[in-house]
């Protein structure tokens, strides 16, 4: 998964909603080459069962570090989720041509 | 930074961005938009235009006075625009609906901000490599 982050394909989904209906509608739209960045209240999803549904799609998942800190959410362990800063957020938008905000 | 990723300085891939901000200045989404704008400029990319839409048009009110212990969330956009030549635009229809239009008529807009229509957003998106929406 990590190796695919540098290629230009897929859609970058910016998920700033807490786990709920928006997450439910996103899951069926995700494909292998897609990436999901959890930001804002979206980082609460790191502690929610819906996270597994996101991961099962094969999409690469990252979380924005400052928003984790602001909400007191512990960074994930070895769950295949990257914690990134704003510069790496920018790099993600370079890798993905299309960016969707949820 | 992962080893397989290269920064744009290493690949000479500099992109042009358009950002759309849909929420008022004192919101987490607007803060994220600003942090993202600073980061893309630090990476060497170009920020062509920021389009303030819906409640985002409140960014244009020059009379807003934040408490001294808070960042000036309007002034910092003005400073960014001046430093990096970024075009800051508020949506005319959204501004009219919210009474922000009055500020434009009395020339009381925050420095660097101007009023324009959605056509300018469309033009900017077509001329940019990336378009991100916040809020």
UniProtKB/TrEMBL annotation, chain B:
<dbReference type="GO" id="GO:0097163">
    <property type="term" value="F:sulfur carrier activity"/>
</dbReference>
<dbReference type="GO" id="GO:1990228">
    <property type="term" value="C:sulfurtransferase complex"/>
</dbReference>
<keyword id="KW-0808">Transferase</keyword>
<dbReference type="InterPro" id="IPR027396">
    <property type="entry name" value="DsrEFH-like"/>
</dbReference>
<dbReference type="InterPro" id="IPR003787">
    <property type="entry name" value="Sulphur_relay_DsrE/F-like"/>
</dbReference>
<keyword id="KW-0963">Cytoplasm</keyword>
<dbReference type="Pfam" id="PF02635">
    <property type="entry name" value="DsrE"/>
</dbReference>
<dbReference type="GO" id="GO:0002143">
    <property type="term" value="P:tRNA wobble position uridine thiolation"/>
</dbReference>
<comment type="similarity">
    <text>Belongs to the DsrE/TusD family.</text>
</comment>
<dbReference type="GO" id="GO:0016783">
    <property type="term" value="F:sulfurtransferase activity"/>
</dbReference>
<dbReference type="InterPro" id="IPR017463">
    <property type="entry name" value="Sulphur_relay_TusD/DsrE"/>
</dbReference>
<protein>
    <submittedName>
        <fullName>tRNA 2-thiouridine synthesizing protein D</fullName>
    </submittedName>
</protein>
């Amino acid at each position: 998964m990590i190796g695919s982050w540098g290629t230009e394909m897929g859609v970058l989904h910016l998920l700033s909603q807490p786990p709920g209906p928006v997450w439910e509608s996103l899951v069926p739209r995700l494909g292998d080459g897609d990436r999901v960045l959890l930001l804002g209240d979206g980082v609460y999803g790191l502690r929610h069962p819906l996270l597994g549904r996101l991961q099962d799609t094969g999409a690469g998942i990252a979380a924005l570090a400052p928003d984790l800190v602001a909400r007191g959410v512990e960074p994930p362990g070895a769950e295949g989720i990257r914690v990134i800063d704003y510069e790496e957020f920018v790099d993600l938008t370079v890798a993905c041509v299309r960016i969707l905000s949820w | 930074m992962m080893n397989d990723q290269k920064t744009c300085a290493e690949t000479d891939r500099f992109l042009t961005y358009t950002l759309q901000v849909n929420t008022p200045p004192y919101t987490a989404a607007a803060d994220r938009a600003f942090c993202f704008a600073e980061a893309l400029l630090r990476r060497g990319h170009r920020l062509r235009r920021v389009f303030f839409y819906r409640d985002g048009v409140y960014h244009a009110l020059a009379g807003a006075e934040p408490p001294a212990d808070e960042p000036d969330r309007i002034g910092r956009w003005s400073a960014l625009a001046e430093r990096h030549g970024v075009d800051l635009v508020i949506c005319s229809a959204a501004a009219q609906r919210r009474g922000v239009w009055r500020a434009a008529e009395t020339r009381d807009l925050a420095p660097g901000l101007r009023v324009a229509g959605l056509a300018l957003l469309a033009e900017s998106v077509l001329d940019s490599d990336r378009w991100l929406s916040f809020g």
